[in-house]
Amino acid sequence: MEKRVNCYKCQHFYVTWDRHFPKGCRAFGFKSAAMPSLVVKQSSGTECMKFVEKRK
């Protein structure tokens, strides 16, 4: 069983003002309608390699 990357806990994740592409990833430089980790997984076939957990 693979552990899925949680973008909400990543330093690179941000919420955009674009209603069509509300989720963004600063590490990869894109916005999307889906969670960025899912887009990375679908595009590359591997889990996101740029995940950095947010500091508390």
What does it look like?
- There is one protein chain.
- The chain is α+β, with helices and mostly antiparallel strands.
- The chain has a domain at 7-43.
- 16% of the residues lie in helices and 16% in strands.
- The chain is built from one helix and three strands; from the N terminus they run βββα.
- The chain has one helix at 36-44, and strands at 13-15, 23-25, 30-32.
- The chain has a three-stranded antiparallel β-sheet with strand order 1-2-3, with no helix packed on it.
- It comes from Thermolongibacillus altinsuensis.
- This is Uracil-DNA glycosylase.
Outline the fold blueprint.
Elements: E1 13-15, E2 23-25, E3 30-32, H1 36-44
Antiparallel strand pairs: 1-2, 2-3
Tags for this model:
alpha+beta, 16% helix, three-stranded antiparallel β-sheet, 56 residues
Strands in their spatial order, largest beta sheet = 1-2-3
Classify the beta-strand content into a percent band.
15-25%
- Radius of gyration equals 11 Å
Give the terminus-to-terminus CA distance: 28 Å
In short:
This is Uracil-DNA glycosylase. It comes from Thermolongibacillus altinsuensis. The chain is an alpha+beta fold and 56 residues long.
